Amino acid sequence: MSASTAVEKVNLREALLTRRRARTPAERESAAEAIALHAAALPALARATRVAAYLSLPSEPGTGPLLAWLAGRDVPVLVPVGRADRSMDWVEHTAGAVESGPLGVPEPSGRPLGPGALATCGIALVPALAVDHAGNRLGRGAGYYDRALADFPGVVCALVHDDELLPHVPHEPHDRPVDLVLTPAGVFRPSRDRDV
């Protein structure tokens, strides 16, 4: 990574996290509900028989309503568990079966299915601090998702707040771009050559 890209990522992450912390609980709840409504209209999600998602942090666009909608449709949802080697394992989500992981991130309690379980999902809903118009995703910097999604054959969809969809985010060749972006305002399809 070039030094300038690294600095640009750190500065942008800091600004985005500060903005997220300033959101009110009502704004967060409204965003989560709106994202779930837009997700329900996604063809890639409607046809998926198994979905990868995540348990959101309080400052992230909430996944609770979306997970409840999927549960109501009897769609199995796999959520990640971070491993010591910075890879991810996957556990089938059960409402209420959540604990705090070693990094303070909510994780499912249950039997790990192995890293390869991700490939059984048609779509992966992933966290992001920002996504640009080309689909480049800025995460928190640990690289868990970039590694997990490197060979993922399904659709990758990031969830962000409206003001986190940016014209450009710093990125590198190993950063896995996304195919779709869900915001409270709607669905954004990055300018890439993939039909989703």
Entry keywords:
196 residues, alpha/beta, Rossmann fold, 7-stranded mixed sheet, 3-stranded mixed sheet, 12 strands, 28% helix
Kindly describe this structure:
By secondary structure, the protein is α/β, with parallel strands linked by helices. It has one domain: NagB/RpiA/CoA transferase-like (Rossmann fold, 3-Layer(aba) Sandwich), CATH 3.40.50.10420. 28% of the residues lie in helices and 22% in strands. The strands form three sheets. The chain has a seven-stranded mixed beta sheet with strand order 3-2-1-6-9-11-12. It has a three-stranded mixed beta sheet with strand order 8-7-10. The chain has a two-stranded antiparallel sheet with strand order 4-5. It starts with a helix and ends in an 8-residue tail after the last strand. The relative contact order is 0.18.
Radius of gyration, in Å, reads 16 Å
Q: What string gives the helices and strands in order?
A: HHHEHEEEEEEEHEEEE
Overall geometry:
globular
Assign the structural class, choosing from mainly alpha, mainly beta, alpha/beta, alpha+beta, or little secondary structure.
Answer: alpha/beta
Average pLDDT taken over every residue: 89
What's the CATH architecture name? 3-Layer(aba) Sandwich
Return the CATH topology: Rossmann fold
Major pleated sheet: 7 strands, mixed
Overall helicity: 25-40%
Strand order of the largest sheet: 3-2-1-6-9-11-12
Task: Let me know the number of strands.
Answer: 12
In whole angstroms, the N-to-C terminal distance is 30 Å
CATH class: Alpha Beta
| Poorly predicted residue ranges | none
Strand content bin: 15-25%
CATH superfamily: NagB/RpiA/CoA transferase-like
**Discrete helix count:** 5
- How many individual domains? 1
